[in-house]
Design a protein that fits this description.
The complex is a heterodimer of chains A (88) and B (934).
Chain A (H helix, E strand, L loop, with lengths): L2 E4 L3 E4 L4 E5 L13 H9 L7 E7 L7 E7 L5 E5 L6
Antiparallel strand pairs in A: 1-2, 3-4, 4-5, 5-6
Chain B lengths: L9 E10 L2 E7 L3 H7 L6 E2 L6 E2 L12 E5 L5 E6 L9 E5 L13 H4 L8 H6 L4 H15 L13 E14 L3 H12 L4 E4 L19 H6 L3 E4 L2 E7 L3 E7 L6 E15 L3 E3 L12 E3 H11 L6 E6 L3 H12 L2 E7 L7 H6 L4 E3 L1 E8 L3 E8 L12 E4 L2 E5 L2 E3 L2 H5 L4 E4 L4 E4 L6 E3 L2 H4 L7 H6 L8 E3 L4 E2 H9 L5 H8 L12 H12 L3 H4 L13 H5 L16 H6 L3 E5 L2 E6 L7 H14 L2 E4 L4 E6 L3 H8 L12 E7 L5 E11 L2 E6 L4 H15 L6 E4 L4 E7 L3 H5 L3 E2 L10 E7 L2 E7 L7 E7 L3 H10 L3 E2 L2 H10 L34 H4 L10 E8 L10 E3 L9 E9 L4 E9 L8 E5 L5 E7 L14
Parallel strand pairs in B: 1-7, 8-9, 8-13, 9-10, 13-26, 15-22, 16-17, 16-22, 17-18, 31-42
Antiparallel strand pairs in B: 1-2, 3-4, 5-6, 5-7, 11-12, 12-13, 14-23, 19-20, 20-21, 24-25, 27-28, 29-30, 31-37, 32-35, 32-36, 33-34, 34-35, 37-41, 38-39, 39-40, 40-41, 43-46, 43-48, 44-45, 44-47, 45-46, 47-48
Helix pairs in contact in B: 7-8, 13-15, 19-24
The chains are: A mainly beta (88), B alpha+beta (934).
The structure holds zinc ion.
């Protein structure tokens, strides 16, 4: 079980959190203006790297807030967690 | 045979026990294994596949053969227990397994004669392809009768199990010399230390010598050190989160304890495991690991035999032989696979005959070994049976070399690297804060190369690599010959290293055999993955207190006690227990549901709808947030009014539905489905926090705060009116909300309907719901449950998310396009609905289905255009007996269904070929909606 540091609450066990997918996937400001292909890319295409992965977590059973984390997909080591908009 | 002196046992404390019904006695400090050996019992079990007689191979956790069933009374029967790990206690009752009718005379041992019939891959070969029929008819029943390791207990386990969490700076696993040294060093540095070991006595191989184990006294005296004997580290999780199973067997009934330890550093001092050697009939009782025989003599003062032959590939075997000689055994000969054994002269000086470059061509004996055929090795390393000479013995010691025990290191995602000098896989890179020390880090020195050992045994018969799974060198060679190259495939095909063994005994030898058979080196062949648990862990330990009513949380709505007292029938809905129906005396469930349905249609019924999810949304931008998320027009919703609200995912498919009520300009009361409550809140929070953080809107779950009484039926208003203060019910239109006092309780009073009848959903603080409920019952309402609720909503064509939908259904498919706000620029999923695929006229659409044969259709039945058609065009989503209509009705999804009203489709059935269904509009009851607004 991972120990995850919520930027607001501190280190907490993984079971308090919910994974929320890759980070920095911006929703198009005007969805009607984007092509089907661009919309499909927004919906489904993810980087799925072998290595460092920027992803979102939510402290669902704690403060309830979403935050960003950088996790290595081979070791599961989380090297940084940051509030939205912050840089590590 | 028990030695007159020595050992770490207490001869002053005799203990009685039985094995297969015969009475024996041992002493305190014995294991079941040592006590049986002391009583001259060498035949302890039958093997899994061939029912071959088996005895003790080892003295520790790796024991593959001596699996026994312990019986300590009802609920305390435990199968597949390794006799080497059971401390002897007074009155212990143990039985052998896998034998019929008795251990000594086992009829199924005839399977041994048919050995060639059950080769590697037997299961796969007969289960697939043309053999499949034979498998079901013949082989499976036979194998089920013969195999099956042990019997599970029938009664519930009466004992208690505990869970405990712990933190420490240093966790040391393994209390041998290296582990004790690591614990001492860490404790000296000021660490909190946990030192665990699977044995009842700490000390590891130091226990082979007499006297106090050095260092233990200092550790015991240190309050920052926790010593955990009989505690197995069985799972290594991420970030040094290690699970330990501690066996307590306390008189107060606390049997085992699960420790979940988060450690800053972990030290693995897990030692090395001695390997058996492959030769013909190397599984006969009396053939034992050399170090195990030494342990029986040193720790338990038991001689496992009087006349021993050592087959050595490693110098450690000599130490064992010398120790047994000193304990009184005669060493008939040492056969060494090596051409120049370093300790040969030392042995000869002790009067022991040593034959270099010799192996064993076969063992002799029945249910115990009586001799070996000693044979010089051919150039390929195999024993030359033609030149073999017999040697009598009742004990064969195998010193096959040592495999560093890196199961936990591998679980920690550590990489193993092949070290040619050590002739072993040693720990390589690992990302965790973890170090290996002692024999698990370095091995115990090279002996005869394992590759050469395997190569010399490729053609031997009955040379067991993995005795527990009855896998021989020939089985592995056959797998390789049949094309299995990857070691993970060889493992699965031959089943070597499965079950409790997990590669401890046969893993290394198995992969060396696969390497030899495929002409590759050991590192080229690679190794299999070590998976948790390291050794078997009982379900009780994993479950802890989470059993019975504490197994899973149960949520009950506020009327639960009332319903229970009236004999309601309940059903689980997620974690909720909801009343399905309230049968009266002598009434069947089906009759109760029909009566409840008619009560709602003719009078008024009362449903506890408290399980609905509820979210309060407040803030100046609350309306804007909901406008951007839900499909509905929210800004145009006036305070005091409600809308049927739909929430999609960005892919355009329906995610949840509910009622959105505007209480004030900046305050909404939103309901969700019972199962969707947490998911909807999560999704809305996601958009509120991350997509639209500029909006000032806040979401609060109020599911538990409001109890909801749904009063539905033509008489609802008449029943409710006398209880209401502060609102004119007659002036409250359908889809409106107001604050009022109901039965003296402050309430949010909704006029909404999920039945098609005029109705109210009265929200009061949850703890006040029972009082409101009683008042409404007194006013004449008939309680109805979820079964009637389902029938009533289906009669009206109302969908249930998750029943009519499956994550691939849009609002348009359900005929709910009217709910989508006209002219909205955006909402979650809108862009996806604009895709051409989402607008195809042949998408599966919601239809009503009227059975032409009057029978109830089966939910999930496939819909076919004609009875001969092979391609399904839809399926039945709901089907009920409608009391109000006096006939069965169904809803379904059908390709292009809205344009097919009047057509007959064929539904599949389990009990007959097809059922004709007439496609009709999905609203069976009051299609004009006159009643709703009445
Ligand atoms: Zn938090």
């Amino acid at each position: 079980m991972l120990l995850i540091t919520c930027p607001w609450c501190g280190p907490r066990p993984e079971i308090e959190f919910r994974h929320a997918g890759e980070a920095h996937i911006a929703r198009p400001a005007d969805p009607a203006a984007v092509s089907d292909a661009a919309w499909a890319a927004y919906l489904y295409e993810r980087s799925n790297p072998r290595g460092e992965h920027a992803e979102r977590w939510r402290h669902a059973h704690g403060c309830g807030r979403f935050f960003n984390a950088r996790r290595h997909t081979l070791t599961d080591r989380i090297s940084a967690t940051t509030k939205p908009g912050e840089t590590p | 045979m028990r030695l007159p002196s020595g050992g770490r046992i207490d001869r002053g404390k005799p203990l009685r026990f039985t094995f297969d019904g015969r009475a024996y006695s041992g002493v305190a400090g014995d294991t079941l294994a040592s006590a049986l050996l002391a009583n001259g019992v060498h035949l302890l079990g039958r093997s899994f596949k061939y029912h071959r007689p088996r005895g003790l191979l080892s003295a520790g956790a790796e024991e593959p053969n001596a699996l026994v069933e312990l019986d300590c009374g009802p609920g305390r029967r435990e199968p597949n227990t390794r006799a080497t790990m059971v401390p002897l206690v007074e009155g212990l009752t143990a039985r052998s397994q896998n034998r019929f009718p008795s251990l000594r005379l086992d009829l199924a041992a005839a399977a041994s004669l048919f050995g060639p019939l059950l080769p590697a891959g037997f299961y796969y070969k007969t289960f697939l392809g043309p053999g499949r029929e034979a498998w079901h008819r013949r082989w499976e029943p036979l194998i089920r009768r013969m195999a099956g390791l042990g019997r599970a207990p029938e009664a519930p386990d009466p004992d208690r199990y505990a869970h405990r969490y712990a933190h420490c700076e240093t966790l040391v696993i393994g209390a041998g010399r290296a582990g004790i040294a690591a614990a001492l060093a860490a404790a000296e540095a000021g660490d909190r230390v946990i030192l665990c070991d699977e044995q009842p006595e700490l000390g590891g191989r130091r226990l082979l010598s007499a006297g106090e184990v050095p260092g233990l006294a200092a550790l015991r005296a240190n309050p920052r050190v926790t010593l955990l004997p009989r505690t197995t580290a069985f799972h290594y999780g991420l970030q040094n989160f290690v699970s330990l199973a501690e066996i307590l067997d306390r008189p107060d009934g606390l049997r085992e304890r699960l420790w979940q330890v988060r450690a800053v550093r972990v030290v693995l001092a897990t030692g090395a495991l001695e390997r058996p050697l492959p030769f013909r009939d190397n599984d006969r009782p009396g053939v034992m690991l050399a170090d195990a025989a030494r342990a029986y003599a040193a720790r338990w003062a038991v001689l496992p035999g009087r006349q021993a032959v050592l087959l050595a590939a490693h110098d450690s075997g000599y130490e064992a032989a010398f120790a047994l000689q000193e304990a009184g055994a005669r060493i008939a000969a040492i056969l060494d696979l090596r051409a120049a054994p370093p300790l040969a002269d030392t042995a000869r000086a002790r009067g022991i005959e040593v034959r270099a470059a010799h192996g064993i061509a076969a063992t002799r004996g029945g249910v115990r070994v009586s001799g070996v055929l000693a044979a010089p090795l051919r150039p390929d390393g195999s024993p030359d049976a033609a030149r073999a000479t017999p040697i009598s013995c009742d004990l064969v010691l195998m010193a096959g070399g040592w495999t560093p025990n890196l199961a936990l290191f591998s679980q920690a995602r550590g990489k193993l690297r092949w070290d040619a000098a050590a002739d072993a896989f040693l720990p390589g890179e690992v990302a965790e804060a973890l170090t290996c020390t002692g024999a698990c880090a370095t091995g115990r020195g090279p002996g005869h190369p394992v590759a050469a050992i395997a190569a010399g045994a490729l053609t031997a018969r009955h040379a067991f690599v993995d005795p527990q799974n009855d896998v021989t060198t020939r089985d592995i060679a056959l797998a390789v010959q049949e094309g299995f190259r990857a070691i993970e495939h060889v493992k699965r095909y031959t089943t070597t290293g499965m079950a409790t063994d997990q590669g401890k005994v046969g893993g290394m030898l198995g992969l060396a055999t696969a390497a030899a058979a495929s002409g590759r080196t050991v590192p080229e062949t690679g190794h299999t993955t070590f998976r948790p648990p390291y050794t078997p862990v009982s379900f009780g330990t994993l479950a802890g207190r989470h059993r019975g009513p504490l197994f899973d949380p149960i949520r009950t709505p506020p009327s639960h006690e009332w319903a229970e007292a009236r004999g309601a029938v309940f059903e689980p809905v997620g974690q909720w227990q909801r009343a399905r129906a309230y049968p009266q005396a002598g009434e069947a469930l089906r009759e109760a549901v029909a009566r409840e349905c008619l009560a709602v249609r003719q009078q008024a019924g009362l449903l506890d709808a408290s399980t609905l999810g509820k979210i309060e949304i407040t803030g100046p931008d609350a309306a804007e947030l909901l406008e951007r998320c839900y499909v509905n027009a929210v800004h145009s919703l006036r305070p005091g009014r409600c809308r049927y609200a739909l929430l999609l995912r960005e892919d355009g498919f329906l995610f949840d539905d509910g009622v959105l009520a505007r209480l004030a300009e900046d305050r909404f009361h939103l309901t969700t489905t019972t199962g969707g409550a947490a998911h909807v809140l999560h999704l809305l929070e996601d958009y509120a926090q991350t997509e639209f953080p500029e909006l000032r809107a806040w979401l609060t779950s109020t599911t538990e705060h409001w109890g909801v009484a749904a009063l539905q039926g033509p008489a609802a208003r008449e029943m409710l009116a006398p209880l209401v203060r502060g609102c004119d019910l007659a002036a409250l239109p359908h889809m409106a909300v107001t604050e009022a006092e109901v039965a003296g309780i402050p309430a949010r009073l909704f006029r909404v309907s999920f039945t098609g009848e005029p109705g109210y959903e009265i929200n009061v603080p949850s703890d006040r719901l029972p009082a409101l409920w009683e008042a409404l019952i007194d006013a004449g309402a008939t309680p109805y449950g979820t079964d009637a609720m389902h029938v009533l909503r289906a009669e009206k064509g109302y969908v249930i998310v998750g029943q009519e939908t499956d994550g691939t259904v849009t609002p348009l498919d359900l005929g709910l396009g009217w709910a989508i706000g006209k002219g909205k620029r955006d909402f979650i999923g809108k862009r996806s609905l604009a895709r051409a695929e989402m607008q195809r006229p042949d998408r599966r659409q919601l239809v009503g289905l009227a059975p032409l044969d009057g029978r109830l259709p089966e939910e999930g039945a496939q819909l076919l255009a004609t009875s001969g058609a092979r391609v399904a065009e839809g399926h039945v989503t709901s089907a009920y007996a409608s009391a109000a209509l006096g006939k069965p009705i169904a809803l379904g999804l059908l390709a292009g269904g809205r344009a097919r009203h009047g057509e007959t489709v064929q539904a599949t059935r389990l009990d007959c070929p097809r059922q004709p269904l007439l496609v009709v509009p999905p609203v069976f009851w009051d299609p004009e909606g006159k009643r709703l607004h009445g």
